[in-house]
Structures are given as C-alpha cells and as structure tokens.
Amino acid sequence: xxxTTADDTTAATTAPEAExxxxxxxxxxxxxxxxxGPAAGTGGxxxxxxxxxxxxxxxxxxxxxxxxxxxxxxxxxxxQDRPNGPAQGAxxxxxxxxxxxxxxxxxxxxxxxxxxxxxxxLRTATSASVxxxxxxxxxxxxxxxxxxxxxxxxxxxxxxxxxxxxxxxxVPGRVQAPWIKSVAWAxxxxxxxxxxxxxxxxxxxxxxxxxx
Length: 212
Known about the structure:
- The protein has 212 residues and is mainly alpha-helical.
- Helix content is 81%, strand content 0%.
- It starts with 5 loop residues before the first helix and ends in a 10-residue tail after the last helix.
C-alpha cells in the first residue's frame, strides 16, 4: 500500500497543469469584459461634447440673428425719427416771405401799377370828365397793384399748405421739424391776410377811388 505507482505520479503531475489550463482561459476573458467599459465611457464623453458644441453653435447663431434684427430695427427707427430734408424748410421760409411781400408790396406790383397809370394817361383825352380820368389813370393802377399782391398771397398760401400736408404723402413715421411747421403756418396766415386785403382793394371796398 505504501508503494507509489507510476500512474499515481503521472496523475499528480498532470493535475496542476490541468488547473493551470483551466485558469488560463479565464484571465483573458476577464480582460475582454473589462475593456469595453472605458471605450464606452469615452464614446459617451465624445457624444456629450459634440452635443454641447452643437448647442453652443446654435445659441451663437441665434444671438447673431437677434443682433442683426435689432440693428435693422434700430436703423429703420432712426430713419423714421430723422427729420425731413431742407427742402420743406426752404419752402416754408419762401411761403412766409411771399406772405410779407403780399402785404408790404413788391417791386413787380409797383412797376405794373406805374405802367398801367401811364397807359391810362395816354389813352385818356384831356377833354374827358374828372371821374373818367381818375378811373383810367389811378383806379386801374391801384387795381393792378392789388392784383399782384393777391397773386403773391395766393402763392404763399399754396406753398404753406403744401409744406404742412407733405408728411401725409411721404414716408410713414417721418418726423417734421417743429420750426418748419411754425414757419409754414406763418406763411399760411400771411397768405390768407394778404389775399383778403387784395380782394378788398381790388373791389374798392378798402381804399376805394374817391368820388369826383
């Protein structure tokens, strides 16, 4: 019983080797199962970084679009709030000046009246009555002066009204300078007064011819 046979020795030698063979395949399997973990984590980090980059780019694009829209809106508002050009101001000043001329008299009206007086003297015979001489020599000259005054007053009135009505036919929201409105209203007022006085003088209601 105490004798060790060759079969027992061979079995004892092969047993550790079998155990080593059984353990050897396990080690690579463990390594294979643990390897996908970091790879999967790295892919998740990359996906999250890509998503964050896309979100940042989208937010940046939205910010640029909002800035562009704000710039366009501010430009439009600046264009609407900007006062009109000097043309309306010049027209308002011309209207007021013509209104003053219609009241004070113009060189053109004076020359026209003097010419009409000269024509009356040439056409009127010395043997004509006093009433006829007064009418032909002085009456027609005064009427001519009043007529030219009325023309200047009418032009002043039309120019002032055109300046005041211009914003209604221009760019919507465009602001008209306050001084333009003031001068235009002055031209309208002077034009109305001058036109009224011209009509009264032409019809002999105001400063009519003296009776002969």
